[in-house]
Amino acid sequence: MSPCDPPEGWREARNLLCVRLDNMGDVLMTTPALRALKAARADRRLTLLASRSGAAVAPHVRDVDDVIVYEAAWMKNAASPPERFHATMQQLRERRFDAAVIFTVYSQSALPAALLCHAAGIPRVLAYSRENPYHLISDWAREIEPLPAPRHEVQRQLDLVATIGARASDPHLSFSVEDADQAGLDTVLRAHGISLPPEFVLAHCGATAESRRYPAALFAQAIDMVAGAGECVILTGSPDEKTLVDEVMARSCDPRRLVNLAGTLTLGEFGALIARAGLLISNNSGPVHIAAALGTPIVDLYALTNPQHTPWEVPHRLLYRDVPCKYCYRSACPLGHHACLSAVAPSQVAQAAFELLESRAGNRPPIMIKAA
Prior knowledge:
Order of helices and strands: EHEHEHEHEEHHEHEHEHEHEEHH
Shape: globular
Strand order of the largest sheet: 3-2-1-4-5-6
Structural class: alpha/beta
CATH architecture of the largest domain: 3-Layer(aba) Sandwich
Distance between the termini: 53 Å
Number of strands: 12
CATH superfamily of the largest domain: Glycogen Phosphorylase B
CATH class of the largest domain: Alpha Beta
Number of helices: 12
Strand content: 5-15%
Number of domains: 2
């Protein structure tokens, strides 16, 4: 399908279901497409069907009017019991949606979600598919296989909604930080006796997939170099990542120079902290896309599991080692060596951080470090 005027039925579609069943970062990379769908009709209402992880970001996406949580068995998240499929189908049927848009990454199939929408009686469904969906997808965006060239995930979804006439005037990611988030962050900082300097560095060592995590020992060395140059470094992580953050702290040569806020912030407070930071050092995970939405520069430790999820429309440095097994689309390294990340030297991470901080500061003198 090519960009065109809205096909029959889409111009009139006011009550729209947007299906995005993977993770928080995937939802964030869909926000420009959601904005385009909302802008196409002034009275359009968007309901997001998302995993628990993806639904967490919905309150910070102003184009989303409502959210339904569903852990789909065909996604890698924890699956809901089979009866939940039928309960969700009934919930969707009761909402009487005019149409649905199913957003997937290249390696996912839209057909299970299309079956759910079909069973719920949703008359129009837009989605990518490499297989012929027959009656499951009314507006089929044919996907070429094999992939001819990498296409960023944000552009992939913008191209999808453009086929029904929805175009975004602003392609940036969306994540809203409210006054309550700022106030909550200030409360947490006071409780920990932390006074933030005008410029500080955030370091986020977690990621949902093991294949996308820079080794803790190397992460500790990298942030030690940054802190050793006089930068204030704050470590963050979800409650589930607190053990990993504690390991990084334990491997630091001088953990007294580091601030550990893992497990203490709500998502909104975390966004407020990212918005104030001069830089984020992170594995390629949800925080990278929050930082991109908020305009905070990023040093992205980018495992070569796939090429489509780089930071969007924000100053950044991608750090990886090119390997023959790249673009494996796996959550764990299938060869066990993790070379695309473990071969990145901590000195490279620190140097990339200094370059971005220097660029942001303008007249700041450069900091050079000697590799071990």
